[in-house]
Specification:
The chain has 29 helices and 20 strands. The chain is α+β, with helices and mostly antiparallel strands and 725 residues long. Helix 3 (51-62) runs antiparallel to helix 4 (67-75), helix 7 (95-108) crosses helix 9 and helix 8 crosses helix 18. The longest helix is centred in the middle third of the chain and has 31 residues, at 467-497.
């Protein structure tokens, strides 16, 4: 305990530089409370457990966090490890301290790299805690940083889990909150655990390279300092240590060698005001040759985490490239500490820019969470919001919108407003019409063209980047699917009731209410959605309705076939195991996971359940059909040059799209081609096959079915059906 007492004295001395005596006493009280609560408890390293909360408080002290945050750091494990209730902490300290400790305690249970569902639920808890008091995540990041600093005492499996969790979630959150100092250290510590060999190689290379260029770098610093003084600019210059994981990411992202990445050095210049930043930039560009394409003005256009600085690259002595960052002292503090900067001075004042943006980000997360159907969707959507690279584009009115790199006009539209995104029908980039899928570039002016009717398209999910857009689109498509399901369900039920000369509106309300209760549905709407999505058979429901209408039980019921138009949209899918097309005899399987799935009647995967009305129903194609249908054919041909081109030309004659082509390795002078085509019906397919067979090099051309010739798919499909059984 002597070591802890010494560390406490050191901490209180540092805290005394910005906290008054009463505030300091609260922090000391929290320490002694924690020491008593954790008495007899030890860490894996063998140190008294209280050394950990003390170390967390030291990290927060360097960030100059307030007394409540520091007290919560001291107490953050007492609820979990010592069973002390939140109400007791509220009585002993105050409401804010108790809430912070409770919030961090909940996050301590979070294991973000565990199984998908648990991961998702845990992340939701984190977002909720952040929304109530964003200081919760600051304490958690400090807690995680100290745990990473002492991770060497854990077993390998646990180290890998924690390191993975850190690099995937906590480091990106620290970056998103502008806490670059913590972000860089978290990444490097995790990098060392996950990729120890790569870490050591880069670490040694950086040290070796720096030693070799020390004299030149010193000469550059002296030269820049002298020229700034000549212009009466009061600036401080410091070199910036390379971020090991940042080097590794840069190598991967830009496909550069280690030598190429290490050949660039970084200097930071801090000034007293923004005007001096631009003056210093002019002095440096006048003294050295700037590197083309390296200048970025993040002062005029800050990053999404409110980072501000001028970035440029120059060629110095002996052709040594150097990166220069120029910013004010205040900007530098915000860059290093982000959301934590100036926290202690905030009381009653407006949030700093980082805090304001962080709150908007967390509010956005809560909005996305409210729209997400389940926790897994939420995590999948939100991870896109933790990206670091950004583009900056303008509205026609000149407002700046910051977006993740490779964002599209759709992302831009949703960033303006969800309604604009949902009604987006086109766009203009720099006043020229452009595709909605094109990646945006910084400096472009984007104008969104809207339609009165919502234009949401499922294909948008393939190219959008922002979590806001993805969440809104999924939510809208779900509502759209529910609407489609409801309409289709009504049609199915009406068809199933038709043989009884009964319509849905003819069912008395009391009878329908009794039926809904027995089926555990709250409304007719809910029942129709369930039928339309394939969760319940319309034939079975129709039979039950007739029973409730006092239909005779022993009377044989003759049901008509359901009609399939090919335009049911999201609620009907066509099985990949047999690829049914119009003209085939088909049957519908009611799948709990996929809705209504159409199979060929002779498909072996459907045979075991085809006569069960709860799982299957006979269907037929309507006379009026729309759309194309996928079908697979096999061509056995002579192996010769240009065979694919000739086959493609034949297929193109019939206005048919080729979806995929595969081939087996040639056997002698023969080759087998497997082609998936989009056809309208069996007649269309027959014409194509006949034309192919007339070619001299074609030995045979036949339609194939995966249950016959692609046996590898059988276990998957059979398993899916058995699960629905």
């Amino acid at each position: 305990m002597a070591t802890e007492t010494k560390n406490l004295n050191k901490l209180t001395k540092n805290l005394g530089k910005y906290l008054d005596q009463d505030q300091l006493e609260q922090v000391k009280k929290a320490y002694f409370f924690a020491a008593n609560a954790h008495s007899g408890q030890f860490r894996v390293s063998g140190d008294p457990y209280v050394s950990h909360p003390l170390a967390v408080a030291e990290i927060l002290g360097k960030l100059k966090m307030d007394q409540d945050c520091l007290s919560a750091a001291m107490l953050h494990d007492v609820i979990e490890d010592s069973g002390i209730p939140k109400t007791f902490l509220k009585k002993e300290f105050n409401k804010d301290v108790a809430n912070l400790v409770d919030g961090v305690s909940k996050l301590d249970k979070v294991e973000l790299t565990s199984k998908k569902d648990l991961q998702a639920e845990s992340f939701q808890k984190m977002v909720l805690a952040m929304s109530e008091d964003i200081r919760v995540i600051v304490v958690k990041l400090a807690d995680r940083l100290h745990n990473m600093r002492t991770i060497k005492f854990l077993n390998k499996e646990k180290k890998l889990r924690i390191a993975n969790e850190t690099i995937e979630i906590y480091a990106p959150i620290a970056h998103r909150l502008g806490m670059h100092q913590i972000y860089r250290e978290l990444e490097d510590l995790a990098f060392e655990i996950l990729y120890p060999l790569r870490f050591r190689v880069i670490e040694e290379a950086v040290k070796r390279n720096t030693r070799g260029r020390k004299k030149i770098l010193k000469k550059v610093e002296t030269s820049i300092s002298q020229k700034l003084k000549e212009q009466e600019l009061d600036c401080a210059i410091s070199s910036r240590r390379k971020h090991y994981y940042g080097i590794y990411k840069k190598m991967k992202r830009q496909s550069k060698t280690l030598k190429e990445v290490l050949d660039v050095y970084a200097l930071k210049i801090t000034t007293s005001n923004a005007m001096d930043c631009y003056k210093a930039l002019g002095v440096i560009h006048n003294a050295f040759n700037p590197i083309e394409g390296r200048f970025k003005d993040y002062i005029a256009i800050p990053k999404s985490n409110s980072y501000q600085s001028l970035h440029t690259g120059i060629m110095t002595f002996e052709g040594l490239p150097v990166e220069i960052q120029i910013r004010t002292s205040e900007m530098d503090e915000l860059a290093e500490f982000g959301i934590a900067a100036h926290w202690v001075y905030k009381s009653g004042e407006k949030d700093n820019p980082v805090q304001a943006r962080a709150r908007r980000w967390v509010n956005g997360l809560m909005e996305i969470n409210a729209r997400s159907e389940d926790a897994s969707d939420f995590v999948e959507v939100i991870k896109t919001g933790l990206v670091s690279n950004e583009v900056y584009v303008f509205t026609p009115q000149g407002d700046i919108i910051d977006l993740p790199k490779d964002s599209t006009p759709i992302d831009f539209a949703f960033a303006l407003h969800s309604d604009i995104g949902l009604h987006c029908s086109g766009c203009r980039i720099n006043k020229n019409l452009a595709p909605l899928s094109v990646p945006l570039e910084s400096g472009q002016t984007v104008e969104i063209i809207t339609d009165k009717v919502p234009q949401t398209n499922p294909s948008w999910l393939d190219f959008i980047r922002t979590s806001r857009a993805r969440s809104a689109i999924r939510h809208n498509l779900k509502n759209l699917k529910e609407s489609e399901s409801r309409k289709f369900g009504k049609r199915l039920l009406e068809q199933s009731l038709f043989p009884h000369q009964t319509k849905l509106r003819d069912v008395p309300k009391n009878k329908m209410k009794k039926l809904l209760t027995s089926l555990n549905y709250k409304s007719v709407r809910e029942l129709l959605e369930s039928i339309g999505s394939g969760k319940r058979s319309s034939l079975v429901v129709a039979h039950q309705i007739m029973q409730f209408l006092d239909e005779k039980e022993n009377e044989e019921i003759q049901f008509s076939n359901l009609q399939i138009t090919g335009a049911e949209g999201l609620v009907v899918t066509y099985s990949s195991c047999c690829r049914p097309i119009p003209g085939d005899h088909v049957i519908a399987h009611f799948s709990t996971s996929r809705g209504i799935v159409i199979h060929q009647e002779r498909c072996k995967n459907i045979l075991p359940i085809r006569h069960d009305p709860a799982l299957c129903s006979p269907v037929q194609w309507e006379d009026t059909l729309s759309g194309d249908f996928s079908v697979e054919i096999k061509i056995v041909a002579e192996d010769k040059a240009g065979i694919l081109a000739e086959v493609s030309a034949v297929i193109a004659e019939y206005s048919t799209n080729i979806e995929s082509i595969k081939s087996d390795p040639p056997a002698g002078n023969k080759v087998d081609l497997y082609i998936v085509l989009a056809v309208t019906d069996r007649d269309h397919l027959a014409k194509i096959l006949r034309r192919l067979r007339r070619k001299d090099f074609v030995i045979s051309a036949t339609r194939i079915h995966s249950w016959e010739q692609r046996n590898a798919t059988l276990p998957i499909i059979e398993e899916e059906i058995s699960e629905d059984n």
